[in-house]
Structure formats: structure tokens, C-alpha cells
Records
---
Amino acid sequence: MSDSTISGADVVRWIQVYASTIAENRDYLTQLDSAIGDGDHGTNMNRGMSAVIEKLDGATGDDVGGLLKTVGMTLVSKVGGAGGPLYGTLFMQMGAATTGKSDLAMGDWAKAVDAGLKGVQARGKAEPGDKTMIDALTPAAEALSKAAAAAASLSDALRSAAQAAEEGMKATIPLVARKGRASYLGERSAGHQDPGATSSFLLMKTAADTFADAGRPRADRKNE
Amino acid sequence: MKKLINNPDDVVREALQGTAAAHPDLKVFFDPHYIVRADAPVQGKVGIVSGGGSGHEPMHGGFVGMGMLDAACPGEVFTSPTPDQMLEATKAVSGGAGVLHIVKNYTGDVMNFEMAADLGKAEGIEVEAVVIDDDVAVQDSLYTAGRRGVGATVLAEKLTGAAAEAKATLAEVAELCKKVNDQSRSMGMALTSCVTPSAGKPTFELGDDEMEIGIGIHGEPGRERKKLAPASGIIEQIAGTIIGDLPFKQGDEVLAFVNGMGGTPLIELYVVYNELTKILDGKGVKITRNLIGSYITSLEMAGCSITLLKLDDELTKLWDAPVKTSGLRWGV
């Protein structure tokens, strides 16, 4: 698996796929947020990711860290609400963890996701089980570290992270929110899937989808 | 949705353009959005900056001017503004005596202002932030985001603005802001929902014969939904909850703030004020200052909120000090 790495161009493609996935799911995320929040998560994330795409126009991904930091800074200045600082911090910390790298081995990716998660926790002060994006990101980061330690293939590791994020997202449904606007609802927040956990699951899922063929020999890969 | 707008995406920017055209004593910036008083920065004076989602007008932009805010950062409708707006506003009003951020307690607002304070400090500006959380409708506990910032924000902006104008230090102004927050309690109610321009439909459903007691200024749910009742019963419940929370006691002097949510006419707010005076008289609490009108709104929501602030000589004097903004103006 040593030759299966994520290139800077792969990272650019992941961001583009995430942006289009957010656009497709804008109304769904907003609908989830209307049930327990203030109904703007899809709109805000879509505004932010559209700005990111404009900003990345022509980016080559030679410096993965710099690229991810730009994504983070753009989200902080365009999203607002709670999503801006949280997703902005996630990408900025992932960028800090990958500074100067032109491609990422699986261990680098696992460390980047973990650094992003720690940044989100420090900014939002949420714990697992509070019904937030942490509930999707924590199991994903754990699955990646475990896969890295077991020397699993890159595509298997990404798939297991996406699956763990999905399970974490679904597990938010019965939870009572203890952070953010949903916490004002108390017990009434139970029975609804958390919109932040949902957009975080989509982040891990698009990574698995986009980087999947990064695991195959370079000669067989498309789009290069 | 029936609104006097062109395109939902343009509402905030076009309203700011109108603000710029109407008020030459304000400077309005568009990339990013922020409003500052035209004579900023005032040298040697603490700069007072606030901000929050749009849709609560006149708060905060209508409170920029002499004796109140030095700058306001409007976000999208009901969405916190971003750190870059707050940083630009902070730099624009920094006159060498530091800058106070007045932050309403919502998760997004708190996080964005924290990032802005870090950025401001990195540029060498002394920044203090005070979080306002006066809404008694929310049970404050470790398991919620805490009480929301509502009516006390308007009072804190006026009182800290007056203190800053009198050249109080940053530490003094921040301490004053905390005191105003500690001595204020608020609660609101809604007769109808607000409609955000982007959603185009009511934020929550409320029957023709129902009301929501304890509503938030973004249409967040309150304590209970019940059948509409005469104003006397509604105000008795809201005022009773507020009075019992601080608690306000016999002999206290208070500022009573009756606020309209955006869609309620002034005549009804005076009916509310009349009920409030009867209740406070009965408790031996004396209203020595008042504010009645729509100052912290929730778009076109019908309803009201009540804020009580326990006064002393210092706060009374600061309240009476001159203020010259489009939203509040006296003594000038």
C-alpha cells in the first residue's frame, strides 16, 4: 500500500465533489436543521462551498496544507453561524497537519482528520454524544487510525471511515442535544438526525468516493 | 411570503445601501459588511462593537453613533456575522484604548467573536468580550447552550456606549457590561411566526388562536404553547417569571423595557406597559426609567418581550447621557 497515496489533485477533486454534494443536499440539510435548529445549515454550507470553489479555481494542489488552509479561511469568512468557525477550523487544522506536503500517505490522512477533529472540539467544546458533527467525525477518525495501524489498504480505510461516520450520524437520531440551538429544545430534540453530523458524514463519504481510485496503481487511474 | 424585497439574496446588502444613503453620519462598508460611526476611531475612547444576524433591526446597525456603538457587524438574516467583518470593524474603531465586543449568547455568535478577538489581539488591539445571556425562558444548565442574549443587549449597548464616551477604561466598560447583564432579565412571547426571506415560509406553525410563551428572537421555541389570552394574563406570566428569576424585590428601582417583535403596533405595547406597571406596583418595584418600542425585533413576528434592569445611580446617569443614533436619540 506504500504506493497508494492521495495527491494534491485528488484533494482538489474531493473539495469539488464535496461542494457539489452539499449543493445537491442543500434542501435536505436545511430541512434537518429546521426540525431542531434554525433552518440555515444547507444554505450556509452551500454559500461557503460555492465561495471555496471560486477561490480554488486553477488550484493545482502542489501544497496540500496550503490548499486546505485556504478552504478553511474561506469557510470562516463566508459561512457564518456555528458552521463557519467549526468547518473552517476543521479544514485549517487539517491544513496545518499537512503543511508542505504534495501528497498524503494513509497515515498522513489519518493524522489530518484527527487534527481537524481536535480543532473542532477545541472550538465548539462539544463531547461525543452531544448530538453534533463530532458524533460523525470521532468514529471516522478512530477508524482511520485503526486502519493505519493495521496497514490496511487506503480504499478500505476510507470506506471504513465513511461507514463509521454514517453509523455515528445515524446514532445522533435518538440523542438529546446538549450544544447549539438544538439544545434549547431539550427532550424535543430527540428523534431527529443532527444536520452537522450529516454534513460531516458527507465529507467522509465524498473522501472515500473520490480517493477510492487513489489506491490503484497510478497507470490505471482516470483523470490524470 | 409577502415582503417588500427584490431578491431574497440581496436583502441585507440593499438594506445596508439604504442605510448608507439615509445616514451620512455613518460609514457603511460592503466587503465585508460593517457599519461604523463616521468619526471613528475616536482617539483615547474604548471602541464598542457588536453584531449578529440581520433581521433584528434597529439592533445593531441602528445603534451605531455617539453614545452607543462605534461599529456593528450585520450577518445574513438570523446568521452570525463572520470573524473578518468583526476584525475590520474592530480595527476601524480602535482609538488606542481597546475594543469591547458585546456578544449575544448564541453558539455561532460566540465562536465567531472568539475567532475575531484572537485576530484582533494578533494585530495588537486589546479586545475584551462580554456575552449577554438574559433570556429566562431558557433553563440555564450544563446541558444547553445557556440562556440566549435578547433585550439586555440593547441596554448594554446604550450604557457601555455612554461610559466609553465619558472615557472609562476598557476594564471598566467590560465590568459595566457584565453588571448590566447580571442585573437584567428578559422574556418574550409570539402571536405569529417570522418568515425569513430565504425560507419564504413561516419558521414555525402557530394556530390563529395560539401563542408561544418564551419565544426566541429567531423563532426558537419557548416554554409553552397555549391558547391566546387577554394581555393581562400574558404579561402576568411573563413578568412573574422575570421578577422571580433575579429576583427583583420590593424597593428596587428598575428600567422597564417593553419591546415589540416587529409586527406588533405601538398601541399594543402601551397596553403591555400598562399591565406591567400594575404588576410592578403590586410588588413594590418602582419603574424609574422606561423604553417602549420595537428595538430588538424578529422580522415581522407579532409579539413582545419584556426586559427589567435593576438600576442604581451609576446606571441611571449613564442611561440619561446623550445618545445620537438612528434607533435611539436623546439629549442632543
Note: The CA atoms of residues 76 and 84 of chain A lie 5 Å apart.
---
Amino acid sequence: MKNCRMGIMGTAPRIIVAMLLTLAGSGTVRAETTAKDVQLMLEAESFLTSKPTGSLSVAVLFNPAVPESVKDAEVIRSLLATIKAGPISPVAKPIELSQLATLDGPAAIVTRGISAGEFDAISAAVKARKVLTLSTDPACARAGKCVMSIVSDLKVAVLYNVAAGQSSGIEIIPTFRMLITEL
Amino acid sequence: MFKNYLLATAGFLTIGTLALTADAQSVDYGSLEQMFGEPVTTSATGKPQRVSDVPMAMTIITAEQIKRTAAVDIPGILQEYTDLDVLDFTRGDSDVSVRGYDTTMEPRLLVLVNGRQVYVDYFGLTNWDAIPVELAEIRQIEVVKGPNTALFGFNAAAGVVNIITMSPLYDTVNEASVRIGSQGYKEVSAVGTAHLGDKLGVRLSAGGYNANPFNDNLTNLLTAPLTQDPFRRAVNLDVLGQVTEDIQVGFEASHSLVAQNQWMLAYFARPNQLRSDSLKASFSADTGLGMIDGQVYKNIVTTSYDMVDAVPGVVSDLAVGDKLSTRESVTSAKLQDLFKIGADHTIRVAGEYRYNTMNSVPIEDVQAGYTVYSGSAMWDWTATPQIDLNNAVRFDHLEPERSGPSVNGPIPITNNIPFPTLNALTNAGLANALLTTNPVTWPYTNADFNNHAIDEVSVNSGLVFKATNLDTIRLSYGRGIQVPPLVDYAWYEPLIRPVPLGGGATASVPVLLNGNPTLTPTIVSNYELGYTRDAQPLSSKLSASVFYDTYKSLSSADPFAYRAVTGNQTLLEGQNIGDSSSVGFELGVDGHSDSWRWGASYRFESIYDNLNFTQYDQNGNLTFDMFYKGAAPHNLLTMHGGYTYRDWDFDLFGRYSSPFSLPNPNPQAEGYGLFGGTFSKYTVPAYVTLDARIAYNVTDWAWVAINLVNFQSNSTQFTNAPPVERQGYLTVGVKF
């Protein structure tokens, strides 16, 4: 807040508009991964029983044949270069789906535009390798293809697939379990 | 739905507990708030929940909001950010309540620090200044509006304020400030944290102030001299260690000493000095049986009132220079297990033991207290992704115990029942004569007290329906219990008082101020329908609720309860005085952007009394009729707004209260009708009060702030006490 440099005159109308939107009920669904999404994914790492600190390799899983996935991977990679979450300093590691065998990091973000069949491949690749697979797509966790989906469009919602977590060897702390939606 | 309910219930009986194994983690409030974009609490159900998910009316004031407050104490913060009722009598003496029913020594709001009660049982009150916490070390102030006895036990009857401090292990607070202000205000405050790796954290804080009362003509109201030098001293140590991967152990110790003028039950003030000491040990462990938490603590609170008798013609065993001293101790041990069954069911089971005791007042030969055994359980069921049902129940068994001299018959005027200064008083001869011819008769034996055990069940039930991603509807019910304060077991004071004989005539007769073993608890029930709407723009939230509260068997902690004259003797004791109910609604909005922040809340309430007390004033008006019904404003509006521009912070707070009534202070009738003195209604006029804070952040580690409190006028009438003056403060703070 201290760093904000917005002028008063420019901000006040925005507030009025925002309040009207509040009353009217707004809520747009964003089409790309945002800084908040990535920030929350990194924050979620701190609620694992094996909490990482310092440099954290974050795989960015994308399909080079799908423009949406490529674009999202680039957005995520650039965001990871600027975001720090507490003691975690992320290092992006883009991985094409054809190279899932090289996946060894403790965290992996699944880009948008991934097909259902590719979800299966990701799910199989992380099995028992203690990789927390993260997505902004709730369907990914619901289908058990990702361990966790984090949605921040409206209220923050965290979906945790218990079976996928167990399959990947992921454990989260009990307090966090009380606060999220377990599937 | 009903089928799902049956299946779930059957499931409890057959599948047992699924084990959770993980590193022990006490709740990391800061990280969780950052994760979810809203505060997290355990004060609603005992389960960690986001504040938007709790099944009851709740407000959380965050550390960020506390940092920007213009107030310099916790009641002031509550007044700025919530629609709680705050009676601001004088420096260091405020009474806070939920949705009306505010009185001096307010007994129905349970106040805690990290789950340890700082509510004092002897009168059933909270001495806010004595809370050994510096504002800089508060993570959040959690306000539950409505009963929550099912979680916290007795006296969480109408609401709860749980002050959560920063974690010594997860948070780092190194901060010091110096503040000077009007009315001779001088304050220092410091908080420091040390970490030994990630295994041990220690936080130490200390602070205090010296000041004058902010009521200019305080000494003119009562003939009793009041303190002109209120002060506060406090120190607090908080330690948390990760002993093993699965176990955390905590230790807390605190001390506070405060001096103030305290408005007593019958709305007269007495200079008071209160010392509070506490020790607390806790642990949390993640086991195959769930998250097991335990805590044991002991509070010792001693008070010393200057009992300079202000009323001509009244003779007590205390006189000029005497002290009315009390010593209360509370020991509590609690064990809780919280676990999930599958993905949708969370269970909490807990047991608690409490032992409260105090000496009798003012004659200290009697020990009175009680032991409480409690068992409680909570079941939270996520029936569907949209529907959550929470039910909590608690059973408390209270066993009173009173020991020491008590004679079911005349109290002899001997050394056993001393009147140490009687002979020094001008009318001692009259007193001696009266006590000789009309001996005071103690009406109860110790067994009368010890045979009146209290068994009560408290309940909280709430249904949360997330109609959409934006809209949440909450339906809740709560049944809370307020037990009689310890003084109602411990009073033991013979007096000589003028008592009305009719026709305006009075006569001096012996009066026995005594406890009452027949008191029954006050039962508070709350029915509420709430609605909140979240919206992403500027993190805004709208809220609305309607509530209906009932109070059954309101009792002795309120003034004016006394028993009829028997012959030439008056027995003065706590009574159950009847019922009352209230209905109202609340509206609220909160939001912020990067640089703006704002909020407002409005409450409308009407109270309906059905009291069995018949006390009339000199004009023939039923004086008790005004007490609850009139004592809460119909309309209460609070607003706050703030803006950050570069290194400057600007925050403004406003509160409007419509008129309400309190007993009219009259030192010639101490007790306001208790002894036949003139009693009348004092109407606190409608008021608007404004607070403001302007801060300049000199560097990342230093700031200067000006706080203005009640700045819109020279003074404002908030209660029946003398008006509260405008206050100004200059604060210099550093982080290190």
C-alpha cells in the first residue's frame, strides 16, 4: 500500500464504480493465469508437511502444440521470475508434456489448454514422486488429475484431491485441510 | 438430503476415525490470511475456518486495521470498527456488550487472549486496561456476536471477544513506540521477538501509560475523591517451540497492574487498583487420533477499591482510608481433539475443568467459589459443496463451594465479624444501638450454597448455504449461559443505611449485603438469519442480518436487585429479576483497494423487558422498565474510511448513536434507589463522535502519527458519567 502512487482524482471514480459493481454483483472469469494465481500456488506449498524453503524448482507443464498452453506457460514463467512467497524463491522449469519423464521438482503447474488425455499422462508421471501438481482449472482436481486446483477469480477456493495427493505422496497439514475443499 | 444425513450418521458409527499424520502446526493465522485473502478463526466452532464460512455472526479486526486505528486502547478499537455497544466512562474504564444490554461491569461478554479468559469472574466483568497485550502484537481481534457457550463455556453468553496475538514461532514483531497526548498522557510500548531456528520462538512485550482522566469534572460528581492518576503497566511473555515433528509446546506468562476509577454496579465510581497475573502452558500434537490440543492456565486477580463512603448517614465496616480488597484465582485445564472423518465431516470433542475461587468481600473470612466440569462436542458436516451444517453442544456441571464463618441467625457484633472503623464514624453510636437492638441476621448456611449445583446445556447450531460464489446465507441458533458472578457467592457485609419508611420518611436500619445461593443462570438465546455478498471489486463485502435474542432470568450482576426489608433489616442480595428480549437488524459494508479502505455498519434494535422487579422512582415511574429497554440506542452507525498516499496514511472514524438512558448519577442516593434515594433516568443524548489518524512513514522502519479522538467537540456525553473530552496523541514508532 505504501508504494501505491495512484492519484486521488483517478482513484475515486474507480471506487464508486467498484462499489456499484459490488452492489450489482460482478465477477468476471479471467482467461489467463494471473500473478495472484501463481502467488497462491506458491503459498500453498507452505502448507505441505514437508514445507520447502529457499529455492524451489517449479515445473511448468505445457503442450507446445497448443497455443493457449504455450502462452500460459510463458505467462507463468515470467510471473515466477518476479514472485516470492515467504521463504520460497521459485525457479521456473518449463517442461513439454512429451518430456514428463524429466519431471523431478516438488511442484508443477499445469497450464491451460491441456486436454483430458494429457491430464492422465501428467497424473501418471507424478505418481509417488512427491510432486504437487497445481492448476487453476477446478476440473483438474475434480477429475483427480491434479493434486490441487486453486481458483482466485472470486473468493479464493482450494480444491484438494485426496486420492491424487496420496498417489503423489503429498501430505498437507491438518489445519489447512480444515479450510479447503477436499475431494 | 435427509438420506445423506442418515448415511453420514451411520457412517460415524461404523467407519471410525481416519488418521491424520503430519507435522504439528498451531494455526498460522498470518499465512492463512494471506492465502485466503481473509482472516481465519477458530473462535466460532473450534475448527479453523475462514471468517466468511463461520456459522454465526462474526467480525474480525485485523492487524492492519489495528495499525491504522485512531484509538489507543481495545475498547476504542471496537468502537471504531464494530457496532458493539461501548460505554466509555473514563480513562481505563469501559464496558462493552453485544447488541445492547450494556451495563457497568458488563458480565455477558467473555473476553479472552488466545483462548485464556481475561474476563474477571468476581464481578463478571472485563478490565480492558489490564489485558496484558500491546496493540502491536495483536494478530486479530475476533468478535462473536451471540452466544458461544458451547465452545467457550460459561459467560460466553451474549458474545465473545478473543484477542489473538502474533505467533512467537511464525511471526516476527520488533517494534517500539512512544506516545504523548492531552490529559497528561504518556505511554511507552515495546514488542520484541527472537527465533532459535525454526524450532523455538519467543516474544516479549511490555508497555504502560500514565495519564489523567479525560473527564474534566470527575471530582465534582461524587463526593468521594477519585484518582486523578490512572495508569497501566503490563508485561507479557509468549514462547512456542516445535519439540518434535508432531508436537508443539507453548508457554505464556503475563502481569499487569492498572489504576482507574471504576464505575460500579450501581453507577457510582470507586478508585480501583487491579493486579492480574497469569501462567499458561499448552501443547498441540498431530496424532493418529487427530489434532490434540491441551492447555492449562491459572489467573490470579487482586483488586483494591478505595471505599471512601460518599453517602452521608451510611455506615459500613469500611470507612475513609479503608480498602475493599478481593483476590480471585481461576485454574482451567482443557483437552480437545479435532479430527476429520472422510472429506466432509469434522468432529471436535473436548473436556474442561475449572476451579474459581475468591475471598468474601469485604470481610475476608469466607472463601467462595465453584468447580466446573464440562464436556463438549462439535460436528461439522459439509453436506454438499454449497451447504455446511455445524452443531455444537456442551454440558457444564458447576459445584459451588463456600467455607468459613456463616451463621444462620444473628450476626454478633464481635471480633469475628469486625466493624473495624465503626467507632471512628460520626454516627457510630447510632449504628451500635441499631445493631444491638436489631441484630443483623445471616440468612444462609454454607450448605445452602454448596447444595445448589448448576447443570446446564449450551448449544450452537448453524447452517451455511453458499447460494452462489458470491452469496452466502447463514441461519443460526445459539443458547448461551451466564452464571452468577463470584460475588454472589461471596458477599458478606453488614451496613447501616437509611431506608425509606414511606411518605418520604427514612430510618437507619442494619443492612446485610450477602450472597444468594438460589440464583439461577441467565440463559441467552439467539436466532439469526444472515446474508453476505462477496465481490471481487476492491475486495468488497456486503452483509445483512436479522436477529432475535431472548434473555431468561437476568440476574444479579445488574444493579437494583435487592430483597425487601424484613422488619428493621434489609437483605441486599443478587436476584433473578426477569426476562428481556430484543429484535433488530444489522447492515454492513467493508472493502479496500490498494490505497483506499472503508467500512460502515448500522444496527437497529428494540428491546422489550419483562422484569419482575418493581422499583419506582419518586415520580411513580417504574425505574427498572427503563433499564434494558432504554439503555441501548435504537440506531447505531459506525463508519470508517482511509487513504494511503505515498508515505502518508489518513484514516477517519465516525460513530453515531441515537439517545439512550442510564440511571442518573446521584451521590446522595448511592445505589440509585437501592436505599430509597432519588432515582431518575438520565438520557444520554444522541451523539456523533469522530476519530482520526494521520501517519507519516518516515522510513520503512520509523513513523510518526497523530491520533485524534472525539475531536469534533470539546467534550461529548457518552454515558451518565461526566463528558469525555477531546483527546490528541502524538506517536513516534520504530521497527527494529
Note: The longest strand of chain B covers residues 269-287.
